[in-house]
């Protein structure tokens, strides 16, 4: 195993000619895909990895300057592809990783056959006639909560984002992976994610995109998925699912797993074609 694979806890499982890369978002790790993976391994080669900063990775690898922008994570993804000698993959990215995938696809389109974007947003802050869902004051309060009492913040943030009470299995799972992160790293990543603006790159994307959106997501309003479809340069499709929450693959696997499998297999109804 190479250095990059070891740092990101890369796992390659399953069998098949087509490779599916699963990339998680903020506050989770590759375990967030546990409901999807069993449906893929019989027919696909599946690559899982952890973003640097996740609680499962060595915190010493987290470079605060490198990860102050999405480019740091994008360079990590390119390094994983290069070390595993991957190309023409189906990329399934959640939240932060959806934008990482978009960014990498601009400079390295040959790495992807398509991008499946779950709970994706190019900007979380409202800006003029753009509605991202948050005001800067909201985020300042969120960051202050992380600074003052990280454990209490996790317990409050997880139910809101997942959609459910604190006792639900999905919320408890997200609490666990959130709390496993080192608080200063979690704050750094949250500041990078919630304050980035990646709207300017959307028109440069040439790889086909499948945008998967929960019908109710506290972090990503429905209009954001419409904005993505209108501004992504490549062919794209939006699939609004009846799932709730920002992590539907964890909270609503019975709904979202069949949807993801359809998009991975490209087994879509005619009326939903690009």
Automatic annotation (TrEMBL):
What residues does the AB hydrolase-1 domain cover?
Answer: 20-257
Q: Which Gene3D superfamilies match?
A: alpha/beta hydrolase
Q: Which UniProt keywords apply?
A: Hydrolase
Give the highest taxon in the source lineage: Eukaryota
- Identify a single GO molecular function assigned to this protein: hydrolase activity
Query: Pfam families attached here?
Result: Abhydrolase_6 (PF12697)
* Keyword Hydrolase set for record: yes
Q: Which family does it belong to?
A: Belongs to the AB hydrolase superfamily.
Name of the protein: AB hydrolase-1 domain-containing protein
UniProt organism field: Acacia crassicarpa
């Amino acid at each position: 195993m190479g250095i990059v694979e070891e740092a990101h806890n890369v796992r390659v499982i399953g069998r098949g000619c087509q490779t599916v890369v699963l990339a998680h978002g903020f506050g989770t790790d590759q375990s967030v895909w546990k409901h999807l993976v069993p449906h893929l391994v019989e027919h696909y080669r599946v690559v899982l990895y952890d973003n640097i900063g996740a609680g499962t990775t060595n915190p010493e690898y987290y470079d605060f300057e490198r990860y102050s922008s999405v480019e740091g994570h994008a360079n990590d993804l390119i390094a994983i592809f290069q070390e595993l000698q991957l190309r023409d993959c189906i990329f399934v990215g959640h939240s932060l990783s959806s934008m990482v995938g978009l960014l990498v696809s601009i400079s390295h389109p040959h790495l992807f056959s398509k991008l499946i974007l779950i709970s994706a947003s190019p900007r979380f802050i409202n800006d003029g006639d753009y509605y991202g869902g948050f005001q800067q004051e909201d985020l300042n309060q969120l960051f202050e909560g992380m600074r003052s009492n990280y454990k209490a913040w996790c317990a409050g943030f997880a139910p809101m984002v997942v959609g459910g009470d604190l006792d639900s299995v999905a919320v408890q799972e997200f609490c666990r992976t959130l709390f496993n992160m080192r608080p200063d790293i979690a704050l750094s990543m949250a500041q990078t994610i919630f304050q980035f603006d990646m709207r300017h790159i959307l028109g440069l994307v040439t790889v086909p995109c499948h945008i998967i959106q929960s019908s109710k997501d506290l972090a990503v309003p429905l209009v954001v998925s419409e904005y993505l479809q209108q501004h992504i340069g490549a062919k794209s499709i939006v699939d609004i699912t009846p799932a709730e929450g920002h992590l539907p693959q964890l909270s609503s696997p019975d709904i979202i797993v069949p949807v993801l499998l359809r998009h991975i297999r490209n087994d879509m109804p005619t009326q939903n074609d690009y």
